[in-house]
Amino acid sequence: MQLSLAPLQGFTDLVFRRAFAKYIGGIDYFYTPFLVMQNSGVLKSSHKREVEPFLERKDDLIPQFLGGSVEEFQFFEKYFSDLGYEKMNWNLGCPFPMVTRKTKGSGLLPHADKIKSILSDGYSSKIDLSIKMRLGLEDKQEIFPVLEILKDMNLTDIIIHPRLGNQMYKGNADRDFFKEVQDRFDFPIAYNGDIETQEDFLSLKADIPNLKDVMIGRGILRDYWLPHKIKGLDIPSAEEKKQILRKMYAEIFDTYSSFLSGDTQLLQKVKPFWEYFSSHFDNERKVFKGIKKSGGFKKYEQAVAFAFQQNVKE
Ligand SMILES: Cc1cc2nc3c(=O)[nH]c(=O)nc-3n(C[C@H](O)[C@H](O)[C@H](O)COP(=O)(O)O)c2cc1C
């Protein structure tokens, strides 16, 4: 079984992934947050930065895109394969109304025929394709006609986050329904959703013993050593963890400083990082509140110093 880090827009960008791979590890492969094609047929520079510099091993990284047309599909297949990637991931899960209204992300799930025509007319099998999806936009039954189409498409992976698009992140991931889906199709489906602790993982494996791969997002951002715990790898002591987190944070901060201009931009980038990072420390709520409330740069640095005065959780 392989473990991947879920893409989280704003959190698991190149800077984070590189630092994670260097200081923590334990992940088998990474995904980029979704890239989109601008109307003009080009990418934003922040999106290009995700895939173009080749700073990661390309076989560890699967670039993801969001799109709802043959044109977008063809654009990304060519773009990624020209860059040398061997696999790409199509996002059929994004739940945001701004996206779903345009029949993209989970907004495509009620339209199995459209998914079929995009794949038949757009995909030329230049590189491998995997799909990350939810159960549907408004109704779980939407997944069945979609999987009927996908099962003949030679995909390398289907990853299901068992929620509906219109749920956003409310309620629980529906493991029972995931199982039902898996039982009806004889290809392996990877699981994603709400694995926050080693206990969650063990109960998932007990519920679904023949599970293929597992993708974890927020659980890993809140506990960087969750993959180690799941895989039975050695875990550093709390004091060692603190040293590692310090180095990792410094590298992430320095890298952002090297290409973001001005304190405002920099703070806009690093403050949200603490939403998950603060979970590593005792008094995590106080730590995060301090960061969030810190106005300018000086106060921010004081809040960071306060965080590193706390003990790191085992
Ligand atoms: C802030 C945020 C950003 C996300 N960005 C993406 C994205 O770019 N692409 C994607 O496929 N899923 C995205 N997701 C969904 C996650 O990849 C994942 O499916 C979801 O968080 C459930 O897994 P988890 O409970 O392990 O976090 C995002 C989720 C969050 C909370």
Automatic annotation (TrEMBL):
Signal sequence range: none
Stored InterPro entries: Aldolase_TIM, DUS-like_FMN-bd, DUS_fam
Domain DUS-like FMN-binding: 5-284
Keyword set, alphabetical order: Flavoprotein, FMN, Oxidoreductase, tRNA processing
EC number(s) per entry: 1.3.1.-
UniProt cofactor(s): FMN
CDD domains per the UniProt record, alphabetical: DUS_like_FMN
Xref: Gene3D superfamilies: Aldolase class I
Biological role: Catalyzes the synthesis of 5,6-dihydrouridine (D), a modified base found in the D-loop of most tRNAs, via the reduction of the C5-C6 double bond in target uridines.
Entry's family note: Belongs to the dus family.
Name this polypeptide is given: tRNA-dihydrouridine synthase
Source organism of the structure: Paralabilibaculum antarcticum
